[in-house]
């Protein structure tokens, strides 16, 4: 029962993140010691229930360099593709370098795939380096993790199929736009299913390894994805609005 309580708290944490834990607010910041008015660029961390994380942190060795290495690569990945994507959109630097947007996109996509493989490797190594949590070390938890990984993989792969290669790997930043917005599965189930499917994969992997550090890193993944979406969502909408206005003017 305690396992399911902890798991539900973690799922609630991720749901809070997905449902506005990092949405900007103009409401006055109320954290003690800060006491300054909120602004559109401040993330409202007070909406996130971190009680599960605090409990699990008791079982994590925070002095382990592999843990912090995993945290750094988790943070770096979305930062990298957002910065490079914005730079390409405004300067067409990669497209000029490679002689066209498609070759440039394939190059960036290759880097993103390699970075994601390295992220998964770093998370796995961090989990192997730290002891298992007895509470999670059971057959039931193992198969729960497998189910989560299957579901996460379904969302990731079906998203890739729906978006295609260029749609998945920042085609809109290269001026390669889709004809219409995808509304079928899995986008009719949730927004951003590739990101949240990936997060589910890491949660499943943590449960399979009975790893408390894996649970913490899963939340870091979810937080980083939410921060990335805060910038990616409005940018993508603006690109397609510009396309619609251009089409109407012709």
Q: What is the string of helix and strand elements?
A: HHHHHHHH
- Number of contiguous helices: 8
For the largest beta-sheet, the strand count, sense and barrel status come to: none
- The general outline is elongated
Class from secondary-structure proportions: mainly alpha
| Beta strand % | under 5%
Extract low-pLDDT stretches: 1-6, 20-46
| Number of beta strands | 0
Number of domains: 1
Output the radius of gyration.
Answer: 20 Å
Helix content bin: 55-70%
Span from first to last CA?
62 Å
Average the pLDDT over all residues and give the rounded result: 81
Pfam families: PEMT (PF04191)
Pathway: Lipid metabolism; Phospholipid metabolism; phosphatidylcholine biosynthesis
Family: Belongs to the class VI-like SAM-binding methyltransferase superfamily. PEMT/PEM2 methyltransferase family.
Enzyme class: transferase
Structure commentary:
With 250 residues, the chain is an all-alpha fold. It has one domain (2-20, 59-249). It has helices spanning 2-21, 51-57, 65-91, 93-98, 101-129, 139-168, 193-208, 212-249. It is elongated. Catalyzes the three sequential steps of the methylation pathway for the biosynthesis of phosphatidylcholine, a critical and essential component for membrane structure. Keywords: Endoplasmic reticulum, Lipid biosynthesis, Lipid metabolism, Membrane, Methyltransferase, Mitochondrion, Phospholipid biosynthesis, Phospholipid metabolism, S-adenosyl-L-methionine, Signal, Transferase, Transmembrane, Transmembrane helix.
């Amino acid at each position: 029962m305690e396992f399911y309580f902890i798991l539900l708290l973690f799922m609630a944490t991720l749901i809070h993140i997905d449902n506005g834990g990092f949405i900007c607010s103009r409401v006055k910041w109320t954290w003690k010691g800060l006491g300054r008015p909120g602004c559109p660029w401040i993330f409202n961390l007070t909406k996130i229930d971190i009680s599960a994380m605090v409990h699990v942190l008791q079982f994590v060795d925070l002095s382990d360099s592999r843990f912090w290495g995993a945290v750094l690569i988790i943070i770096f990945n979305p930062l990298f593709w957002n910065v490079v994507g914005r730079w390409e959109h405004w300067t067409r630097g990669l497209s000029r370098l490679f002689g066209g947007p498609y070759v440039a996109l394939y190059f960036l996509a290759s880097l993103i795939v390699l970075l994601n493989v390295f992220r998964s490797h770093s998370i796995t190594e961090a989990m192997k380096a730290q002891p298992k949590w007895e509470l999670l070390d059971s057959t039931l938890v193992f198969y729960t993790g497998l189910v989560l990984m299957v579901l996460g993989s379904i969302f990731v792969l079906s998203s890739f199929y729906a978006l295609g290669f260029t749609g998945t790997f920042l085609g809109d930043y290269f001026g390669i736009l889709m004809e219409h917005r995808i509304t079928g599965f899995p986008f009719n189930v949730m927004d951003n299913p590739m990101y949240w499917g990936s997060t589910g994969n890491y949660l499943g992997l943590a449960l399979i390894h009975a790893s408390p550090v894996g649970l913490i890193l899963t939340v870091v993944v979810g937080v980083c994805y939410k921060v990335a979406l805060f910038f990616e969502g409005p940018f993508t909408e603006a690109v397609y609005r510009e396309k619609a206005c251009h089409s109407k003017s012709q």
